[in-house]
Specification:
Shape: globular
Number of strands: 14
Radius of gyration: 22 Å
Low-confidence stretches: 1-28, 233-244
Structural class: alpha/beta
Largest sheet: 10 strands, mixed
Strand content: 5-15%
Oligomer: single chain
Distance between the termini: 21 Å
Mean pLDDT: 89
Length: 441
Amino acid sequence: MAGKKQKNKKKKKKKRIQVKSKPHSTGRQYSPPEGFHLMAKPIGPVCNLRCKYCFYTEKESLFPDEENYRMSDEVLEAYIRKYIETQKIQEVPFVWQGGEPTLMGLDFFKKVVSLQNKYKQGKRITNSLQTNGTLLNDEWCKFLAQYRFLVGLSLDGPEDIHNRYRVDRGGKPTFQSVMDGLKLMQNRRVDFNVLACVTRESSKRPLDVYRFLKEQGVKYIQFIPIVERKPDSIAGKLGLRLGLPPSLKKEEADKSVMPWTVQPEAYGDFLNQIFDEWVKKDVGNIFVMNFEWAIANWAGVQSTACSFSRRCGRSVIVEHNGDIYSCDHFVYPEYRLGNIMEDSPRHLIDSMKQIGFGAMKETTLPDYCRNCEFLIACRGECPKHRFMTTPAGKPGLNYLCPGFRKFFGHIAPYAMYIIRLLQNGLPATAIMKAIDSGKIK
């Protein structure tokens, strides 16, 4: 843990907990975790919605000769068999995304479970499914509950916020369909969490979003900042937004991003306002992953989120045709590693190309980040957002940096207090009583 209290010379001066990171050395030995993730896109970029901020449906242009984006039985079986047999850990987590994976139909996922049982070799198999929820019915929910799928449901907040960008192919709103799916999952006791995207507009209404989700009985929430660049000339020819664009100066940022992109400091304010309500009322009852990750990093626990890990590269994508790419956000020709039909996923994960990809998250950090007091919590966040220059004009600064500095600075005293509670065998919920009694402000 890297937090210490500073002594105050004046008694009346409010105590402040300073968060310090250890000096950042890219030369330190790095030991990657034994496990890795192969996240599958069985329907590729195909979706029944046309969410305006979606970065994945545009990937159809990378498969110009495709007539059918459905994963074949041969690719599915090779994926399941090789993923399980090349894992060195006992729990193998399968994650199904898209596009919209429920377009594959329920029979496909029944086949998934059957093949997992065939090849599991005594290992524990888990399944997660990310969905927009509009195609869920009672039969789907019964299946998801029976086989203990964890569902990630995309829901941005109240009706007017959700419907602003999450529309179907005809431009019609999807809020009611998503809410119907949520209620069906609750009725069948499906394990689920909500993935709420934070746009420029919704960032101005943090408590409306948070309280709405609480009112719906949502216990697990992840807030995803929407950051999308405008396409440059090369991307325009491909019909894409590139993953690693040139670095920009601060004054150029707003002109270079799509209008729905959340503004950096507004994102920090959004998280802070929700955190203030959560830490006073909801600790132990509502679980906001953004807060969990930050506190875990400060406690020295290896992050389960690649964005906030020291390095990345252990989570790759299997496309519908078996092609394997370095990352969900880097599905471009230059990041193709191989194909599940021909290659061992373990060999691809441990290849110099992929190791180098993951190491860049750390090695390309500018000095501004290496010397930052919040490095231990942030780690530069996701490389796809690192297209800004530092105050000294160096490339590699995260677009959201001002927001993260606001957020990490604001929650630091509370994070340190929670860590001390846990280290002393006390529940994190005790912080609410401490705040109520004035022990921490």
